[in-house]
Design goal:
This protein is of the alpha/beta class. It contains 14 helices and 13 strands.
Length: 420
Amino acid sequence: MRPERSQAVDTGRPDALCYSDRCDRQEETQAAGHCTNGSPMKIIIAPDSFKGSLTARQVAEAVARGIRRFDPTAELDCVPMADGGEGTVQSLVDATGGELAYAEVSGPLGEPVRAAYGLLGDGETAVIEMAAASGLPLVPEERRNPLLTSTRGTGELMRAALDRGRRRLIIGIGGSATNDGGAGMAAALGARLLDAAGRPLGPGGGALAHLDRIDVSELDPRLASATVIVACDVDNPLTGARGASAVYGPQKGATPAMVAELARNLAHYAELIRRDLGRDVAKLPGAGAAGGLGAGLLAFTGAELRRGVEIVIDAVGLRQRVRGADLVITGEGRTDGQTASGKTPVGVARVAQEAGVPVVALVGSYSPDAGAVHAHGIDALLSILHEPMTVAEAMARGTELLERAGEELMRLLAVGRRLG
């Protein structure tokens, strides 16, 4: 356990649930599951959202309430987490004391949508989920056609963030309805994509067949001093057998014939980016993410592509917050073998490992291959379910189940100390 600490001070973080009261008697602290030297436990609660049930902040606060039932003096720090996909904006806003902002932008088919983005508490950073403006759920299934869908709304969200004075943009690019290589995004930021007659291209991946010239002389000048960081958890290139069109086109409504057409168009687009902008994006890992939006962000904004969970870890200061902790609790709705490939719980566990802090994951359920996460720093994997129930019932009772799991985890830790 940690050596005895002086009384904790106010962190100033609105998300931190910190308690500095110390127990007066050694036996009380031991009974409550504290460190045997009388110091309150310091616990970091850093979960992902439970999709369809609770946000990451709601998960963390429910676990915290359960812990306090058994140990009201524990020092708790709730750190909502995400991995760059759905929920990243809310998690970063919650974890940094920021706020949500809204803008009316172009949806994937040009129809207006009201999209949220985050203004983080540092006063410098905005976080955007491209799916809020250009996501697949915004297009009815019968109208999905990546020859027509555009990323223009994502560029409009970026422009809105720049208008709010933010010069560091974090962009999550999962869940797209598009296959236009980020051409729509670039046009919204002032780039001119022109056909042979000098006319601006229409929207969508189909229009790229007519691209003749790229002119960036009117690109938003604020981008030159901005930092753009892209949360990208795939390594697909823009073109080829593993490219944006071949791998992801069908889920966006592309027929085999459309896939072939879109692949040709993106290859042509990449060639003109190389010729006119001097950037070779065709084979870069991650360039094919979100229908080639990764390539567009690299080409037009000089973006850096990083794993989503690493971006969130840095943004919330998780490494600093874990130092000196006794325990880290993470979690997600369902854990399986894919969690080990870089999802939130494993990202959190790697940070905890660096600091020598044990990790417990509280999850809704886990698959037979979920044990793979133990090799990545998760010491124990516990389901919050304590009786048979349907998925719908579990989602509806998420708060109750997490509170109970937090309390029972503390009771289990107290048993371990008594055995020790």
